Amino acid sequence: MENTSNNKRVVFSGIQPTGNIHLGNYLGAVRQWVARQDEKVNYFCIVDLHSLTVPQDPAELRFQTRSLAAILMAAGLDPARSTIFIQSHVTAHAEACWLLNCITPLGWLQRMTQFKDKAAKQESVLTGLLDYPVLMAGDILLYDAHEVPVGEDQKQHVELARDIAQRYNSLYEEEFFVVPEPVIPEAGARVMGLDDPHVKMSKSLAHVRGHAVRLLDEPDEIMRSFRRAVTDSGREIVFSDDPEKAGVNNLLTIYKAVTGKSEADVLADFADARGYGDLKVRVGEAVVAMLAPIRERYNELMADPAELDRLLAKGAEQARAVATPKLDAMKEMMGLVLPGG
Ligand code: TYM
User: Fold this and answer.
1) How many CB atoms lie within 10 A of CB 87?
2) According to the CATH classification, is domain 203-298 in 1.10.540.10?
3) pTM to 2 decimals?
């Protein structure tokens, strides 16, 4: 039994409530979620359990979880059209992770690029960090999601979720899980750091001055970050794969994603630019204009925490109605006795 209503395709995506949500998260993920709300059945999950895979300050994590919910709603996710919820409110996610752990070979997880990168930077690697993609597979598979809109960096994890779904289906029941597809946006899939255009803009570096544009930054700060953006010693404003031009390419890519214009139209906009200084200011201004209404709405939502909690409770209830029967079916298939028979 598939989770579809009116034959609409099901979309599931998630975002961690840690660090500061930045322009890369917005252009690479959130904005596509917002745009497709009416075409699909949507589940958007604030993945607090994933955040625990690295040490967190409890009070800060709690604040960031609510704050992210407000940001997502301010950015245009509408609780009336999409199911927006906190992962830990739906216990089926952690349980599905366990069941899927028991059919996932360790080697599949040790191969994950993100695990290898993150583990290499830590002295002691937590088991949760290795297991992170299995929890993510559970997130997606519980809802029979067809599509998983993510930035480029999560593609490998969605591919792993496909492998896990296929393995489960072949072990227990053909077509039990929908095999999900990653959906990567054309522009904005990979927004690079403004201070170093060779590294991905990342939440873990968002506190570094000039690295990221955080969604709630004040206009002045956003403009400062753009003015300081690293470019090159030339003067050519072009889209390019040349590593030397990565900074200019990143600025143009951001502008393209923000305005939705074609590459030709973007270049036409900068035909009269007086050097890189001008480019940086104009891209910064476009970003400020895009983010201003989001910041305003965020402040309104955060001023009414009871309403925010009510919306999140409703989201969790809608999610549970889909995830719990799917989890029970998994348990039964795998030989567990359900309470009450
Ligand atoms: P997270 O919280 O790191 O990032 C949220 C989304 O933002 C995208 N993203 C970017 N896109 C473009 N440029 C960037 N610099 C950039 N940085 C991040 C990410 O690709 C992601 O789409 N494991 C996931 C969360 C998750 C999930 C899921 C996603 C948990 N369960 C199920 C989809 C489906 C993560 O840590 O994303």
Assistant:
1) 25
2) no
3) 0.90
